[in-house]
Amino acid sequence: MTKPARFFRNAGCGWLCIDKGVIRAVWVMIAFLPLFSCTAERQPCLTPKTASLNIKCVHFSTDTATTTVDTALPMAVFGALTAKGTQSVIYKGASSAFTISLSPVADSCQWLVTTDSLNFPFDTLGFYYERKLKFLSNACGYTYFYALTSVTTTHNNIDSVIITNPSVTNDVNTKQLKIYIHPSF
Amino acid sequence: MLTQSSLKYIFILLFSFLLTGAVDATAQQDTVVAADTVAIADSAVRKPELTTHQLVVGFDIAGPLRNALDASRYGYEIAADYYLHKELYLAAEAGWGGCKAAYTDLKYTTTNAFLRLGFNKVLIARENSKDWGGLLLGLRLGAASVGRSVADYMVTDSLWGGSAGTLPAKNLGAYWVEVTAGVRVELYKGLLAGWNVRGKFLLNTKQLEELAPLNISGYGRGDKNSVFDINFYLSYAIRWGR
Questions:
Q1: Which residues of A touch B66 (CB under 8 A)?
Q2: What is the distance between the alpha carbons of residues B65 and B69, in angstroms, rounded to a whole number?
Q3: Quick check: A25 contacting B, CB < 8 Å?
Q4: Residues 81-110 in A contacting B (C-alpha not used; CB under 8 Å)
Q5: By the CB < 8 Å criterion, does A10 face chain B?
Q6: What's the structural domain count of chain B?
Q7: B126: phi > 0 → left, psi -120 to 50 → alpha, else beta; which?
Q8: Which segments within A6-157 are labelled E, that is strand?
Q9: pLDDT class for A78, splitting at 50, 70, 90?
Q10: Can you say whether the dihedral through the CA atoms of B15, B91, B118, B122 is positive or negative?
Q11: Between chains, do A36 and B45 touch, taking CB under 8 Å as contact?
Q12: Residues B78-114: pLDDT tens digits?
């Protein structure tokens, strides 16, 4: 009677006799060896490391309107008041959405804003917040997330500001601040 | 709820079964037998008369290989299983290891010991009472005790400037479940070789949020909620009569 074939047949085989089953097993094991291609290299950081404060600029279309419309600023300038001086970013092209960052070395910071690089004076936005140390991953290390407590503003071109979401993280899709621009800017 | 990672591991396990099944089918093509003869042989196969106990003790030979390839981590693992009944094995694996993160913005070391307990089930019918190889499917519950050194970190920001800080040393626990699949073959009179693929799912992710270890020996990357792993075991079987 013939026995049914098995995956690993080794019956009747001596120490030096390696049958087909063992060869197959070794082959399958070798096929997995590429999985060991790990090295001491640090994994690449694939998530944003800096928490972004995302701003939407709006205005009321009329004095009696209850809903807002997006306000495209023609060439907005945002300038961070840092210890090294004012670091400015000029947005070339009309936009109503902007992204800035908060200082990880203090519990408050200031940004200058103007609606157009040719339109002065600037408004000053003051941000007050709590810093929260956040471990992202071993690839990215640590960063700071923030909880906004208040935002102040001057009123040259800005009417008012509203915190729509106090949590400032590395999520680039969540808007934290709505800036109401004077319609006549 | 099945996540994408869970589906990936299930796919890998199914692929492993299909792979071994395909090889088995190829082997069977070499044997031409009558259908009634096969039926008799199968009925004999499914009712083995086991008269021996078996305790298998092994060592993960992939550990030293990984240690040589990756200087940031090390780990060693031993494994044992004991035959209970009906192709069911009680399985235990234990080991120790550590890792070192030495980056410009993050520096710490960890050491840990781990233990995994569970069961293996042999899926292919035993050919005879001396046939101890086969395809194994298993389930494990794993736990690790992790000791982390003081951690130095630095947050860099090109606009505002960076800041540095220190986290105190801490002892952590990690718990996970594993689904395993693998094959084992007897090379020579009690000397066994085999491999296991493992899908691991971390249970206490919250506790590791402050600083997940670069590597938890026995589990894998501490900052991943699910990981894939593989072990190659060289083992010795101790058998004695019932």
A1: 36, 38
A2: 6
A3: yes
A4: 82-84, 87, 101-106, 109
A5: yes
A6: 1
A7: beta
A8: 53-60, 68-70, 77-82, 85-90, 97-100, 108-114, 123-137, 141-153
A9: very high
A10: positive
A11: no
A12: 999 999 988 899 999 999 999 999 999 999 999 999 9
What CATH number does residue B123 fall under?
2.40.160.20
User: Is the per-residue pLDDT at B1 higher than 60?
Assistant: no
Give the largest CA-CA distance in chain A: 100
Of B72, B135, B155, the CB nearest to A40: B72
Pairwise CA distance, residues B98 & B146, whole Å: 9
What's the pLDDT at B170?
A: 95
Q: Which of B24, B45, B161 is closest, CB to CB, to A83?
A: B161
Listed residue (A67, A22, A60) closest to A160, CA to CA: A60
Which residue from A minimizes the CA distance to B211?
A135
- Chain B residues in contact with A35 by the CB 8 A cut-off are 230
Question: Using only C-alpha atoms, what is the Rg of chain A?
Answer: 30
pLDDT of res. B133: 81
Structure token digits, residue B146: 């992790």
String of DSSP letters for B71-89: TTEEEEEEEEEEEEETTEE
Contact A36 B37 (CB under 8 A): no
Contacts B155 to A, Cβ<8 Å: 104, 133, 141-144
Q: Which of A87-91, A96-100, A119-123 has the lowest mean pLDDT?
A: A119-123
Confidence band of A29 (pLDDT split at 50, 70, 90)? low
Instruction: Give residue-wise pLDDT tens across range A150-167.
Output: 999 999 989 999 999 999
ipTM: 0.73
